[in-house]
Amino acid sequence: MGDKSGGTTESGPRSDWAELTHECLINIFSRLTLEHRWTGPMFVCKSWLQASKDPCLNSVFDLETGFDSAPESPRWWTPEFERRIDAMLRSVVVWSEGSLTEIRVRHCSDGSLSFVAERCPNLQVLSIKSCQNVTDQSILKIASGCPKLKEVDISYCCEISHESIALIGQKCPDLRILKRNLMNWLDPSQHTGIVPKEYLNAIPQDGDSEAAVIGKFMPHLLCLELRFSKLSAKGLVLISEGCLDLEYLDLSGCASVTSHEIVNATANLKSLKDIKKPNFYIPGSVFHTERYGHWRLYDERFQTDVFRI
């Protein structure tokens, strides 16, 4: 590639990439990943930056691949990192000009989500895992401002209550996928040194309250994930009575329900194709005989396939 002064090089005529039309740039940039667009073309020249901001390139904002490809870092839980995520999300919301349909981020805050609620009426997918500063305040706005939601993932968001889940069900009639997974409270050691201790201690305890509103306000759910939820058999019954279209149900880590209770509660779900049942590994460091009782209690309570002490 030559410089931008025109003329020729030893390999042939020089190309002035800055002179490409807006349409050509968009066509080229659409073939790049989000990461490549944000770390490359946006810094080349003004025309490339403007092309990168085109609404057609900003209808989807997906950072999940980047998070999944890297080991979780304590840095992700810092205010500085949250501010960076918020800034990126706000920028994409502005550039999308209302066309944003999919958001997959982590570690954003109430402020940026409230901004989404105000400007993204066509949003269909919202995945905001591990957001320690997202509360009912912004989720209630999301439910009202984004009625076309079909998929919501609020996993590991400990400040979101059953009230927000209820309003999402009421305001978003097209919702088909809900993911409300919690961190592994049976073995929190895997989060030690990464997730702030006070946040680990804030894991929601109202599993049945959440199950009740899911069953009442989300009748068309096809996929439901509740890993490590503290719901009981009562809550599971409420879900199975209200969500008759369920095809996939993940109850991994739900220590308060047995396999027998799960079979009974889900017997009426005729469309259910796949169900993940609790399967536990209790590390020796947290094993106390006086707390858990004898082996038959384990067999009855957990019905585990793989069990090691």
Average predicted local confidence, pLDDT: 83
* Spatial extent as radius of gyration: 24 Å
Determine and state the CATH class of the domain at 58-204: Alpha Beta
Strand content is 5-15%
Keywords:
Monooxygenase; disordered N terminus; eight-stranded parallel beta sheet; two-stranded antiparallel ribbon; globular; 14 helices; alpha/beta; 10 strands; single chain; Leucine-rich repeat, LRR (right-handed beta-alpha superhelix); 309 residues
Give the topology.
Elements: E1 8-9, E2 12-13, H1 22-29, H2 34-39, H3 46-52, E3 60-62, H4 64-68, H5 79-96, E4 102-106, H6 110-119, E5 125-129, H7 136-145, E6 151-153, H8 162-171, E7 177-179, H9 197-200, H10 207-217, E8 223-225, H11 233-242, E9 248-250, H12 259-265, E10 274-276, H13 289-292, H14 295-302
Parallel strand pairs: 3-4, 4-5, 5-6, 6-7, 7-8, 8-9, 9-10
Antiparallel strand pairs: 1-2
Would you kindly provide a written description of the structure presented here, covering whatever features stand out?
The chain is α/β, with parallel strands linked by helices and 309 residues long. Among the domains are: 16-57, Monooxygenase, CATH 1.20.1280; 58-204, Leucine-rich repeat, LRR (right-handed beta-alpha superhelix) (Alpha-Beta Horseshoe), CATH 3.80.10. Helix content is 38%, strand content 10%. It contains 14 helices and 10 strands. The chain has helices at residues 22-29, 34-39, 46-52, 64-68, 79-96, 110-119, 136-145, 162-171, 197-200, 207-217, 233-242, 259-265, 289-292, 295-302; strands spanning 8-9, 12-13, 60-62, 102-106, 125-129, 151-153, 177-179, 223-225, 248-250, 274-276. The longest helix is centred in the first third of the chain and has 18 residues, at 79-96. The N and C termini lie far apart (62 Å).
